């Protein structure tokens, strides 16, 4: 897994948002609007909410999507959902907020009346007691009734042919203060191996795949009956089987919380860690598809063994790279920081390649999440400890972008020239117009003899060294527009010269497009030639699937 750069990750995120936006336009219209309902938004990460906001704020799709989202107000303190709603309002989206209160006595009474099959007036005393115990939480009301029935405080009288109860006994009974404690108390009565199955499942969130279940069963004798015990939990109503039986999902998130409470507080971190290590050792040497699941479990614990720390650091680095590719930038930042903390003191000496990978993905993840100083620090580590220029090139490229984003264009441009000089290029600080005209005319003559098909048929630049030179000349060309405008023409010509000599790459199209601006500008006054070369550059973009460069190419041609 290679580290996905900030530019690649940002482009992928935009592409995903655009595709989803276009999809919603296709399937919805004002005459046939689409209703989208998302439950439990308090579990959504910021990246998912950003994509959702992009879809909902689509001007062309306005009025075609009716969105409903639900979340628990007591579980969203400092959550990204508030920024999500603010951003929607800033896009002039109409938002309506509806607060769902707990049930009142009338609602509880109707619910109990329906559950027991009796007239509402006959169960008012029970409803009052249940309301006082549950504060009107619907799930708590149902579980409270089940608990009362399990302990014979609520019984069916065959003589009276209805449910009966003793108000005084229920009042004196010590019912748990919340639904999780009530469910946990109920679960304690289950067989130990069923409790273990619920504990294990709760460590993976609201659901656990049958693949993970089978892996754990083969990894340890302690989990050999895990699947059969989960089937028992299904029969008891705690768990449901979904996705054609491939996934076990808790019947309610409160059931999952109750299952998690079965694990002693001081044992939770080690319990997670042990599960993760079992999965890691069982899947080692294979292509780990469930890397996030494994790493999340392992990271709960404290790893003492030095060699094991290196293995887990590498696992976190791979998870960070995969998270960057999945546009989950917050997770990528967390995994890369965890990986860095697991490295030993002399890691640059003993684990050079791993250190390079970790600090590179950390710098990209930190930059993507807006942690600029942290990104700079990680990049400086690479630039200080890298053994060769080739090892440092990705770090240089990112740092140049970072400096420009921080409005330090002069520093970024100077660093660009410094890297080009290290790559063997001689870049002047300024050029004389006369010498520049002569150079431009040489290139102009080559393009006059060239057809569009000749350019499209040119060999691809396969030399990594020359490709790196092209990459940094592209950066220099862009930055010179802001800090040394006369040099933009020089950098554009150099990009074209390298392309004609060593073959074309994705930066060639942009270099040729910028050169077409030089031809049509005040220096050469060849508008027709510039237009022709510009069209060739546009055609060349079809050869490379690089949407990240399209805006720059189109700006040069149409702007």
Model description:
- The chain is mainly alpha-helical and 559 residues long.
- The chain is built from 28 helices and 7 strands.
- The strands form 3 sheets. Strands 5-7-6 form a 3-stranded antiparallel sheet. It has a two-stranded parallel sheet with strand order 1-2. The protein has a two-stranded antiparallel sheet with strand order 3-4.
- Helix 5 packs across helix 6, helix 13 packs antiparallel against helix 14 and helix 18 packs antiparallel against helix 19.
- The protein starts with 5 loop residues before the first helix and ends with a helix.
- Report how far apart the termini are: 38 Å
Structural class: mainly alpha
The major pleated sheet works out as: 3 strands, antiparallel
Mean pLDDT: 87
Low-confidence runs (pLDDT<50, min 5 residues)? none
Beta-strand fraction estimate? 5-15%
- Radius of gyration from the CA trace? 32 Å
Number of helices: 28
Strands ordered across the widest β-sheet: 5-7-6
Give the strand tally. Answer: 7
Overall outline: elongated
Helix percentage range: 55-70%
Question: Strands, helices and their partners?
Answer:
Blueprint: H1 6-27, E1 34-38, H2 46-56, E2 65-69, H3 81-90, H4 105-116, H5 124-134, H6 138-150, E3 154-157, E4 162-165, H7 167-172, H8 179-187, H9 192-202, E5 207-209, H10 210-219, H11 226-235, E6 239-242, E7 247-250, H12 253-261, H13 268-283, H14 291-298, H15 306-325, H16 329-342, H17 347-350, H18 352-368, H19 372-385, H20 389-405, H21 409-422, H22 433-448, H23 452-456, H24 464-483, H25 487-502, H26 506-520, H27 527-540, H28 550-558
Parallel strand pairs: 1-2
Antiparallel strand pairs: 3-4, 5-7, 6-7
Helix pairs in contact: 1-2, 2-3, 4-5, 5-6, 6-8, 8-12, 9-11, 9-12, 10-13, 13-14, 14-15, 15-16, 15-18, 16-18, 18-19, 18-20, 19-20, 20-21, 20-24, 21-24, 22-25, 24-25, 24-26, 25-26, 26-27, 26-28
């Amino acid at each position: 897994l290679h580290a996905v750069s900030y530019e690649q990750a940002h482009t992928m995120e935009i592409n995903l948002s655009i595709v989803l936006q276009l999809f919603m336009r296709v399937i919805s219209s004002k005459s046939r609007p689409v209703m989208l309902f998302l439950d439990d938004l308090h579990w959504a990460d910021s990246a998912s909410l950003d994509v959702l906001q992009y879809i909902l704020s689509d001007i062309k799709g306005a009025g075609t999507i009716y969105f409903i989202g639900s979340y628990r107000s007591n579980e969203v303190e400092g959550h990204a959902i508030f920024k999500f709603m603010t951003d929607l309002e800033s896009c002039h989206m109409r938002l309506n907020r509806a607060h769902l209160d707990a049930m009142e006595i009338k609602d509880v009474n109707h619910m109990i009346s329906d559950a027991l099959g009796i007239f509402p007036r006959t169960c008012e005393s029970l409803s009052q007691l249940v309301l006082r115990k549950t504060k009107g939480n619907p799930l708590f009301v149902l579980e409270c009734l089940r608990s009362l029935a399990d302990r014979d405080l609520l019984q069916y009288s065959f003589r009276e042919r209805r449910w009966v109860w003793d108000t005084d006994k229920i009042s004196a009974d010590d019912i748990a203060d919340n639904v999780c404690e009530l469910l946990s108390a109920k679960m304690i009565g289950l067989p130990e191996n069923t409790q273990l199955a619920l504990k294990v499942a709760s460590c993976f969130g609201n659901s656990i795949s049958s693949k993970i279940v089978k892996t754990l069963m083969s990894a340890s004798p302690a989990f050999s009956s895990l699947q059969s015990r989960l089937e028992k939990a299904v029969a008891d109503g705690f768990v449901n089987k979904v996705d054609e039986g491939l996934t076990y999902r808790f019947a309610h998130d409160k059931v999952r919380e109750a299952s998690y409470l079965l694990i002693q507080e001081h044992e939770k971190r080690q319990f997670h860690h042990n599960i993760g290590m079992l999965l890691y050792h069982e899947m080692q040497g294979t292509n780990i598809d469930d890397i996030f699941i494994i790493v999340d479990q392992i990271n709960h614990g404290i790893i003492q063994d030095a060699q094991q720390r290196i293995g887990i650091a590498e696992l976190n680095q791979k998870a960070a790279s995969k998270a960057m590719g999945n546009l989950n930038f917050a997770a990528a930042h967390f995994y890369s920081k965890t990986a860095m903390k697991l490295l030993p003191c002399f890691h640059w000496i003993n684990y050079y390649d791993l250190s390079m990978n970790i600090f590179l993905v950390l710098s990209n993840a930190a930059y993507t999440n807006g942690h600029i100083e942290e990104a700079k620090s990680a990049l400086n580590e690479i630039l200080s400890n890298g053994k060769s220029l080739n090892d440092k090139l990705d770090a240089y490229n990112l740092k140049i972008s970072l400096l420009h984003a921080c409005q330090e264009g002069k520093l970024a441009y100077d660093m660009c020239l410094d890297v080009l000089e290290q790559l063997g290029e001689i870049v002047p600080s300024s050029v004389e117009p006369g010498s520049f005209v002569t150079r431009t005319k040489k290139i102009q003559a080559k393009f006059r003899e060239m057809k569009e098909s000749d350019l499209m048929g040119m060999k691809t630049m396969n030399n990594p060294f020359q490709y790196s030179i092209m990459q940094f000349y592209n950066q220099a060309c862009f930055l010179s527009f802001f800090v040394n405008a006369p040099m933009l023409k020089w950098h554009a010509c150099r990009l074209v010269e390298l392309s004609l000599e060593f073959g074309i790459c994705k930066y060639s199209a942009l270099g040729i497009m910028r050169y077409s601006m030089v031809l049509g500008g005040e220096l050469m006054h060849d508008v027709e030639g510039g237009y022709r070369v510009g069209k060739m550059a546009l055609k060349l973009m079809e050869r490379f699937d690089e949407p990240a460069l399209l805006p720059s190419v189109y700006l040069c041609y149409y702007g």
